[in-house]
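Quick one: structure tokens for this chain, please?
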Amino acid sequence: MKITEIREIPETELRKRIKDEEENLVHLKFQKATSQLESPIRIRMVRRDIAKMKTALRQIELKNAKAPAAGK
């Protein structure tokens, strides 16, 4: 998933997707431990997607925190 796509997602949906991807990562790690994982690169891709989503979420939070302060 590209960062430009992630930035278009609303905050609530972004939080939900982060939770879903973290659960997916747990399942992938379990598959790896039981030697059932077909593509090990998938773990890296999911971890990077989670990081991108968390970064975008943090940017939204910082933007929202500065907006009320700028109005004073």
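The chain has one domain: 3-67.
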